[in-house]
Amino acid sequence: MPNKVIIRIIAGLLFLGATFAPLPQSAWANEPWYPGALLDYFKERMRNDSARTFLPISLAEELALGKEIAIEINRRFGGLLQNDDLIRYLNQVGMNLGRVSSRPDLHYTLGILNADFINAYAIPGGMIFITRGLLAQVRDESELAGVLAHEVAHIARKHAIETFADERKKEMLRVISRQELEDNPATVKNLYAKMKSNVLDRDMGEEMEIEADQIARIMTARLGYDPDGLARYLVRVSRVSPNREGHFQFSPALEKRIKFLEWKSGLDRQTHGEQKSEYKVLAERFRKFINAHTLGTQP
Amino acid sequence: MGGVDILRKFRQIGEIAILLALAFLVCTLPVYGQEESNIVFILNEPVDVWDTKSPLTSKVVGSIEPGTPALILREEKEWVLVQTTTLKGWVHRLFISEVKKEATIAKDPFEFLAQLSPEISALETGSAHSIRGLINFENLSGSESRIHPQIIDQIDRMLQYRLTPEELDRFLQEGGLTNPHAEQSHN
Lengths: 299, 187
Fold this sequence. Notes:
The structure holds 2 protein chains of 2 kinds.
Chain A: H1 2-20, H2 25-29, H3 37-48, H4 50-53, H5 59-76, H6 84-99, E1 109-113, E2 120-122, E3 127-131, H7 132-135, H8 141-156, H9 159-174, H10 178-183, H11 185-200, H12 206-223, H13 229-238, H14 254-272, H15 283-289, H16 292-295
Parallel strand pairs in A: 1-3
Antiparallel strand pairs in A: 2-3
Helix pairs in contact in A: 6-8, 8-12, 8-13, 9-11, 12-14, 13-14
Chain B: H1 2-33, E1 38-41, E2 47-50, E3 60-64, E4 69-76, E5 79-83, E6 88-92, E7 100-101, H2 109-115, H3 137-144, H4 149-160, H5 165-174, H6 180-186
Antiparallel strand pairs in B: 1-4, 1-7, 2-3, 4-5, 5-6
């Protein structure tokens, strides 16, 4: 009888050992076992793994993402235009808009891409790029403020970053742990490629574009610019040949945006009365800094 | 007699169970010898190695030179227990490169570490610690294509570009625009 008891105990121990031993391999394989090792292993795993990826993206993460995308844009579109006066002027308009945005503490900074197509990029974290081609289509400072306010609004409302966070959550539901992510770098790469693509090659989506237009109107009006500047600019570029490279080729929402802005303009006039004369367009100051000579384009 | 038969059958089942458990153990044991491990490289400066991670009782047990490969034994918050060919102890996470999952390591981790080159690539010295739970951005883009330093320099200069609040106020004033900040301070 005692033999049987011993055999049963040994069998039980062997069974338990065989069941639990393979589980926390990374914790036990390289380190002698210690009391609480199993608990530590699972605690550590919970801390490091997927749970954290469900948290909102922090400012530090946003800035890191922004820098990555900015480098990609710069690399893809041939670098930045170097003209100190022009850059200062652009930043004076853009930074003032940043100060009246919903995230005034963010460091907004603007650069001009040395490219002829018409486009602008709102980078998570506060960087804004506009192309030389876009500037060539703008006629006054209120239009420029409208365009920049639209980009500031994308950043302030975290449109790109929240799209990315949603994508990441979805991805995390499929990929359980950080370890598995590291094992499958293709998953992470795809995620970032998607994020870059959202910022670089596509609109944020009709809803976000229209929200950014609406906020842009409010921000420009708050500084005393003519809030219709953005609509005027959009109408003009909608008439530019759509075959040009990068010219809103991914923007089927453009027509809807123009209609929305015109409707909003009419609504504002009804609500607040005619304030047109009080608003500034500042065409002369704009031409002083932005012209064919400073842009290096043909007149 | 029937009771004895039942006991015999139980004994046979017990023996089979023990054999199965032993077989399972034998199958899983070699995994310990060939476990995949996380490799890190020590970054730019020689790093102090501590015997424990407790700030009150820990002592420096040595230091590791930059570029030295090390195995990660445990990770706890900001501290990582590492093993080099000569030293074992805790280092702060700031001083190590991104954790890299290496291929299957031989039974002897010391042998594996000795085979690794002590050199450290430019990408691995990147100070930007990435989004937790994901991998290093700079490593990612670096692996896709080499980025010209001039491009990174342009972006850095753009990020450092500053205008004073006074200059921004003056710009609004010169254009006859509204300055909400001046209005707020006036009120």
